[in-house]
Every structure is written in C-alpha cells, then in structure tokens.
C-alpha cells in the first residue's frame, strides 16, 4: 500500500523508479542513525542514460533541469530502499548537485532547481533543504547532472 508521499508522486504523474544499480563499489544509499545519505544519482531511466554531454554545450540548461528532476526521483527511490517508507522522511536536510558544465556555463543553481523543486512538490515543507550546486568538468558516463540527497527520518 502506497503512503502519502507515493500518493503525491502519483498525483504529480510520477512513479517511483526501481533503485539504480551501483556503477562501482558503493551502495545507492546508507542509513546512519536517523539519516539517510544517497550516493550521487544520475538521470537514469530504465537503466539508460538518455542524454550525455556538457550543460551549456551539448545539453541546454532546461534539459539539464529536467534531468536533475529525474536524479531526485532516483534519490527518493534510493532513500526508500533503506528507510522502507518515504513517509518516514522528517525532512530533506541537504542536496548537492553536480553539473557537468561547458567552460562558460554559470547556471548551475538553475539546473539543480530541478531537483529542489521536485522535492518541494512531493514533500512540501519537509522538502525545503540546504544546497550546493557545483560545476564540474565531467561526470560518470558523461552524464550532464548528478544529485545526492541527505534526509532525516522520523525514528521508528
């Protein structure tokens, strides 16, 4: 039975994807006490990275913002894999977004807004968080965006 958070996802026309399998030697998410830390989530859909390249060159800022949204959805799936239920989220504490950027691209905050806005739409006030948006030279698999999330859980 889906909880309130998954019902909100459905209301937004979204479904929680399967957890993206690790590309190397790590776990998609780990729990430490009341916190869950996700590994960096790429914009994978059904095991495929549909778009590659640098934002501001091969990928537009608007495309990258949508990809950041996909990353955040993958992060929620990773959180659920260790928390058991997304309704246990007390709040999103921190989001870190990495944007593979052309040398003259400076719109990283706008790209990472895709993740932040999704978390806000799904979780309401619990989705408000601290954040970093960082431009980098390259990401795994030549992904344009990577997002990691830290959440605090209601202790069960």
What would you note in describing this structure?
By secondary structure, the chain is α+β, with helices and mostly antiparallel strands. Helix content is 30%, strand content 26%. Strand 5 (89-100), helix 3 (108-123) and strand 6 form a beta-alpha-beta unit. The chain is globular, with a radius of gyration of 15 Å.
Compact description:
With 156 residues, the chain is an alpha+beta fold. It has helices at residues 4-11, 61-83, 108-123; strands at 29-32, 35-38, 44-45, 48-49, 89-100, 130-136, 145-153.
Write the layout of secondary structure elements.
Elements: H1 4-11, E1 29-32, E2 35-38, E3 44-45, E4 48-49, H2 61-83, E5 89-100, H3 108-123, E6 130-136, E7 145-153
Helix pairs in contact: 2-3
List the keywords.
156 residues; 3 helices; five-stranded mixed sheet; alpha+beta; two-stranded antiparallel sheet
In total, how many beta strands?
A: 7
Average pLDDT score: 96
As a percent range, the share of strand residues is 25-35%
Shape: globular
- Radius of gyration over alpha carbons? 15 Å
The percent of residues in helical segments reads 25-40%
State the major sheet.
Answer: 5 strands, mixed
Number of helices: 3
Structural class from helices and strands? alpha+beta
Low-confidence stretches: none
CA-to-CA gap between the ends? 18 Å
Strand arrangement across the biggest beta sheet: 1-2-7-5-6
Along the chain, the helix and strand elements come as: HEEEEHEHEE
């Amino acid at each position: 039975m889906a909880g309130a958070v998954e019902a909100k996802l459905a209301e937004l026309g979204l479904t929680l994807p399967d957890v993206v399998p690790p590309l190397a030697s790590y776990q998609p998410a780990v729990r430490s006490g009341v916190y869950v830390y996700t590994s960096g989530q790429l914009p994978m859909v059904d095991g495929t990275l549909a778009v590659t390249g640098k934002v501001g060159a091969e990928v537009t800022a608007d495309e990258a913002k949508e990809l950041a949204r996909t990353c955040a959805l993958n992060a929620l799936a990773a959180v659920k894999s260790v928390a058991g239920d997304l309704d246990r989220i007390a709040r999103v504490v921190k989001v870190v977004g990495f944007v593979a950027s052309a040398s003259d691209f400076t719109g990283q905050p706008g790209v990472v807004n895709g993740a932040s806005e999704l978390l806000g739409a799904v979780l309401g006030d619990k989705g408000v968080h601290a954040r970093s948006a960082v431009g980098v030279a390259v990401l795994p698999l030549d992904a344009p965006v990577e997002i990691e999330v830290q959440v605090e859980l209601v202790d069960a």
